[in-house]
Design a protein that fits this description.
Blueprint: H1 2-24, H2 34-92, H3 97-228, H4 232-236, H5 239-307
């Protein structure tokens, strides 16, 4: 009982797994009842048909073997007969007669086939020609009213083509004239554009010059207003007073520099003499120092000799 209880879930699981595999492969579910009996009958019928076909194939294989054996025997007999005929032809001095006759028969047969094919082709071509002529006649009959309608349209088309040619000639002439005028206008526009650019540059230059002049004019007016003012403190801030002060300062500085220059010039010769005397004194002191050093070295040498 325990074994049965363990086996039932396993069997149910395997059955579910098999059903899933059948669904994944596109197979149908397990048939039951009449459908299963019908399926068994169909399988049996197919088995019977398979057995019959297999028996038939076995008979055919056997018949193929018999036929192959018969063909081999006939081929051997044909080769023997052909060899005998060849020997007889050689004995009678007509070797190759049979082969030539066979070739002629083959050529005659092939010629007959070719003639038959040519006849068939000629008949087909004749039928095709009749069909084409019939189709051409039908198309002509169908196109006749259209061609009749097209005749006046063709005359109108010719008139339109003539008018188109005339208008095209006029258009080309007008286009060439307009192209020349356009080229002249472009050159004129280019010259005017350059002139406009030059005038624009001159205008900006004059505007800047005007602004500068207006600034100078405003400065002059302010300077005049300050100069006419009676207040000394305000007048000191004028450019005139500032320039006057700077001029006075530069004059005073020039006078001081000229006086200093005069003093330097006056003291130049004594200073040069004093510098020469100073250089001579330096040389003299240097000589004395050298003599004193030598005298000291000689006295030290004598003391060393006396001590020894």
């Amino acid at each position: 009982k325990q074994w049965y209880q363990r086996r039932v879930p396993i069997t149910a699981g395997e059955l579910s797994k098999k059903k899933e595999e059948m669904r994944s492969t596109g197979a149908e579910q397990v048939l039951t009842g009449p459908e299963f009996k019908k399926y068994i009958a169909m399988i049996r019928n197919k088995g019977n048909v398979y057995k019959a076909k297999r028996s038939e194939m076995a008979d055919l294989r056997a018949e193929v073997g018999v036929l192959a054996r018969t063909a081999d025997i006939l081929q051997n007999q044909y080769n023997e007969v052909k060899q005998t005929i060849s020997s007889m032809e050689k004995e009678r001095g007509i070797a190759g007669y049979t082969d030539t006759q066979d070739q002629l028969e083959m050529i005659s047969a092939s010629k007959g086939e070719v003639d038959e094919k040519k006849g068939q082709i000629l008949e087909d071509m004749s039928d095709m020609s009749d069909q084409l002529n019939s189709m051409i006649s039908e198309k002509k009959a169908a196109l006749a009213p259209i061609i009749k309608e097209l005749r006046p349209l063709r005359g109108k088309c010719n008139e339109l083509e003539h008018l188109h040619t005339q208008k095209k000639t006029e258009y080309d002439s007008l286009s060439a004239s307009l192209g020349s005028n356009l080229h002249n206008l472009e050159q004129e526009v280019g010259g005017l554009r350059e002139t406009a650019q030059g005038e624009e540059s001159r205008h900006h230059f004059l505007m800047h010059a005007k602004q500068l002049l207006e600034a100078h004019q405003q400065k002059v007016e302010e300077e005049l207003a300050i100069y006419k003012n009676s207040d000394p403190a305000v007048r000191k801030s004028s450019l005139r007073e500032q320039y006057n002060r700077k001029i006075q300062e530069q004059d005073n500085l020039g006078k001081a520099l000229r006086a200093k220059q005069k003093t330097v010039r006056e003291q130049h010769a004594p200073n040069v003499t004093q510098m020469a005397m100073w250089r001579d004194l330096q040389q003299l002191l240097g000589v004395k120092a050298a003599v004193l050093q030598r005298t000291t070295e000689v006295e030290v040498g004598k003391e060393n000799i006396l001590i020894l």
